[in-house]
């Protein structure tokens, strides 16, 4: 492990990919953990880049889907896995289907944060992790998981794993928590490095992150090499060092390494963990790119289940994204930034085998701004009900301290 890590807005990529947002990078995967007196466990996975919930949990029973998704819509007879006669699961998540059948996997559809209209990855993710209505000095710079810890006496951090410069915003705040990150590497050609420096010159967040990234080395470059090999990008592979290419064959690596480490801590004193998975910004070729991100998510959840053993029964996993994507696929067989999206629930503590939420419909008059899935639920409310069930929080604590100003609404009964 390295004694340094990317800042939250740092990015890792090869020189040919300068147009990809750091916020949507599939290689930005810090882990934050917190110990607590409870016996139940909570894992929050941030899906950076805006997951297309309409593709992951496909409403094939809605007559409007086929006309809006001419190449992306799949029915059960075309490879999707039927969930309940109305919704179907993307085939890339087939490894998770046994969890659905065992009632350890569920989804919430048509949810969002209060974020609207600007559709910026950075702002959307900040609002998701802050758990507030707006961003700015008035809302502070702490995250909702840290505010949860602030409501409980006697919290302690796993200080032996306090590695890296900063926490995810989700767990940042007055209560100290541990940080851990796999090694990170960046290797650019001199021309690519110079171009990146010029692009970032006037943005100190990017500039400082890039300078830091240039000094690091390790497994994250191996992840990049692995993906290039998987996609047949021989030109990209040729630009990487031989050690990096060789590391791509090592084990454990990537998301499996992160999930194994998370489970190890959850088997000990840690009760709350959070990490991120990128690669969800599917503007083009979504049929090709989305399965890679879904595979990472499936690997993370199945590794957690395997490594947690009997503790899986006491665990809830919430996978959340900053916003959804447009209901219409675009001209490059992808989707653009939208509003309403989907949330994934997993774990032995979850009442799975169902799709929660109020479905708004896909008729044009039912869409948000006639382009996006209309949000009918607040993703914070579902997270709030999960925490209330896992940790016995009073409703007033969730609505006033963890998510200030939130109305949780009626109990969706997410947990067993």
TrEMBL record:
<protein>
    <submittedName>
        <fullName>DUF1501 domain-containing protein</fullName>
    </submittedName>
</protein>
<dbReference type="InterPro" id="IPR019546">
    <property type="entry name" value="TAT_signal_bac_arc"/>
</dbReference>
<dbReference type="InterPro" id="IPR010869">
    <property type="entry name" value="DUF1501"/>
</dbReference>
<dbReference type="Pfam" id="PF07394">
    <property type="entry name" value="DUF1501"/>
</dbReference>
<dbReference type="InterPro" id="IPR006311">
    <property type="entry name" value="TAT_signal"/>
</dbReference>
């Amino acid at each position: 492990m390295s004694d340094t890590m990317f800042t939250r807005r740092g990015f890792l990529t090869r020189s040919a990919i300068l147009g990809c947002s750091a916020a949507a990078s599939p290689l930005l995967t810090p882990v934050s953990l917190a110990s607590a007196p409870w016996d139940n466990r909570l894992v929050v996975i941030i899906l950076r880049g805006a997951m297309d919930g309409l593709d992951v949990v496909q409403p094939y029973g809605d007559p409007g889907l086929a006309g809006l998704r001419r190449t992306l819509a799949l029915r059960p007879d075309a490879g999707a896995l039927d969930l309940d006669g109305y919704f179907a699961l993307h085939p890339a998540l087939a490894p998770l289907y046994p969890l659905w059948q065992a009632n350890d996997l569920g989804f919430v559809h048509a949810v969002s944060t209060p974020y609207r209209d600007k559709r910026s990855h950075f702002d959307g993710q900040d609002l998701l992790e802050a758990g507030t209505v707006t961003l700015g000095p008035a809302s502070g710079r702490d995250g909702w998981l840290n505010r949860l810890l602030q409501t409980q006496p006697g919290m302690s951090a796993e200080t032996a794993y306090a590695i890296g410069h900063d926490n995810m915003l989700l767990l940042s705040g007055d209560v100290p928590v541990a940080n851990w990150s796999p090694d990170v590497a960046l290797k650019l050609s001199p021309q690519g490095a110079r171009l990146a420096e010029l692009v970032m010159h006037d943005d100190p967040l990017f500039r400082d992150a890039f300078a830091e990234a240039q000094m690091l080395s390790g497994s994250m470059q191996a992840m990049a090499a692995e993906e290039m090999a998987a996609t047949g990008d021989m030109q990209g592979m040729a630009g990487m060092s031989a050690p990096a290419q060789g590391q791509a064959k090592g084990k454990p690596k990537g998301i499996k390494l992160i999930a194994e480490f998370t489970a190890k801590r959850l088997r000990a004193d840690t009760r709350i963990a959070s990490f991120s998975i990128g690669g969800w910004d599917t503007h083009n070729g979504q049929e090709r790119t989305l399965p890679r991100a879904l595979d990472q998510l499936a690997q993370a959840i199945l590794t957690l289940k395997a490594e947690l053993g009997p503790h899986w029964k006491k665990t809830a996993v919430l996978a959340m994204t900053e916003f959804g994507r447009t209901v219409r696929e675009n001209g490059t067989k992808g989707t653009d930034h939208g509003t309403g999206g989907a949330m994934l629930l997993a774990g032995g503590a979850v009442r799975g085998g169902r799709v929660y939420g109020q479905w708004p419909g896909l008729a044009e008059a039912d869409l948000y701004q006639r382009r996006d899935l209309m949000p009918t639920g607040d993703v914070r409310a579902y997270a709030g009900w999960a925490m209330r069930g896992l940790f016995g929080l009073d409703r007033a604590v969730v609505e006033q301290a963890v998510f200030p100003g939130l109305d949780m609404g009626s109990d969706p009964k997410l947990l067993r």
